[in-house]
């Protein structure tokens, strides 16, 4: 088993060398403990992903496609976006603690993770990944919903994110603008799922970082109209009503538990 677990350590060490070796002298990060190297790598990767995706997204929808997707009066101000960036950057060091902890648990054999797809085969890999995503979807739905329903959690944690409650205050930069503990709680289902279903390690890490892109997407106020995806049209309603569309990737949990509100139907009511 020890030899098998070494595969996880070798993979995270490769990621550390790839990221840290690109941006920092080895004398700065080489002496650090392995887990701290992982945290620093996650932090640098998270910051880069947040800014590169956010700036490209905003440049495209607010400048290249100005007035195509979003009317001029719905474009958030630079002040609003800078505030979102400030909140996200204060939380980012704490966000990165969760994937670092999950890597530690995986490397020590505490989870059901497997290192290579060939260990289980492609069919089992696909089945396990699907079950993992269902668990994550269910967990994030209820975590998000309880952050609204339990008043102290909303007041002291989730309200930080919900100051962005109108179309002209939402932007891709709002995607990670949470109280640090709020952001961690909503990502916890990714880690819990590792104890419930076998999951490919690299896929798990990729999905954790995909969260940054997904949250940017659902805060851009552009309704993609791709069923059954819980896109920005649905999430904008969540920010304006506070009581609907708690789901993450899909509408299924909101549909099952009676909290779904469709943006197309909402537009029809306004006409």
Layout: helices, strands, pairs:
Elements: H1 2-23, H2 26-29, H3 34-64, H4 78-95, H5 97-107, H6 122-149, H7 151-156, H8 180-192, H9 201-217, H10 232-241, H11 252-257, H12 263-270
Write down how many β-strands occur, each being a DSSP E stretch of 2 or more residues: 0
Shape: globular
**Main β sheet profile:** none
Percent helix: 55-70%
The chain-level mean pLDDT equals 93
The figure for the number of domains is 1
SS element count, helices = 12
Strand content: under 5%
Written as H for each helix and E for each strand, in order along the chain, the element string is HHHHHHHHHHHH
Structural class: mainly alpha
How much is the radius of gyration in Å?
19 Å
Quaternary structure annotation: single chain
* Cα separation of the termini: 63 Å
Low-confidence stretches: none
Protein name: Delta(7)-sterol-c5(6)-desaturase
Keywords: Membrane, Transmembrane, Transmembrane helix
Organism: Nicotiana attenuata (Coyote tobacco)
GO molecular function, one term: oxidoreductase activity
Question: How would you describe this structure to a colleague?
Answer:
With 271 residues, this protein is mostly helical. It has one domain. 64% of the residues lie in helices and 0% in strands. The chain is built from 12 helices and no strands. α1 (2-23) packs across α3 (34-64), α3 runs antiparallel to α4 and α4 (78-95) crosses α8 (180-192). The model has no long low-confidence stretch (mean pLDDT 93).
């Amino acid at each position: 088993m020890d030899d098998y677990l070494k595969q996880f350590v070798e993979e995270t060490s490769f990621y550390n060398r790839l990221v840290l070796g690109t941006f920092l002298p080895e004398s700065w990060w080489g002496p650090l403990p392995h887990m701290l190297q992982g945290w620093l790598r996650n932090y640098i990767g998270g910051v880069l992903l947040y800014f590169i995706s956010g700036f490209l997204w905003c440049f495209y929808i607010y400048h290249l496609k100005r007035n195509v997707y979003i009317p001029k009066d719905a474009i958030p101000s630079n002040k609003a976006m800078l505030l979102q960036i400030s909140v996200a950057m204060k939380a980012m060091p704490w966000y990165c603690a969760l994937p670092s902890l999950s890597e530690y648990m995986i490397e020590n054999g505490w989870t059901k993770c497997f290192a290579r797809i060939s260990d289980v085969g492609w069919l089992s890999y696909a089945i396990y990944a699907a079950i993992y995503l269902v668990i994550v979807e269910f967990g994030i739905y209820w975590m998000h919903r309880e952050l609204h329903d339990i008043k102290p959690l909303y007041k002291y944690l989730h309200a930080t994110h919900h100051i962005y409650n109108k179309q002209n205050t939402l932007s891709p930069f709002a995607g990670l603008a949470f109280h640090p503990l709020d952001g961690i709680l909503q990502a916890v289902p990714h880690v819990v799922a590792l104890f419930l279903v076998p999951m490919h390690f690299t896929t798990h890490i990729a999905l954790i970082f995909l969260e940054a892109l997904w949250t940017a997407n659902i805060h851009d106020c552009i309704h993609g109209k791709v069923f059954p995806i819980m896109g920005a049209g649905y999430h904008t309603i969540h920010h304006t009503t506070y009581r609907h569309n708690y789901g993450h990737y899909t509408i299924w949990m909101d549909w099952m538990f009676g909290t779904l509100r469709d943006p197309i139907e909402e537009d029809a009511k306004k006409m």
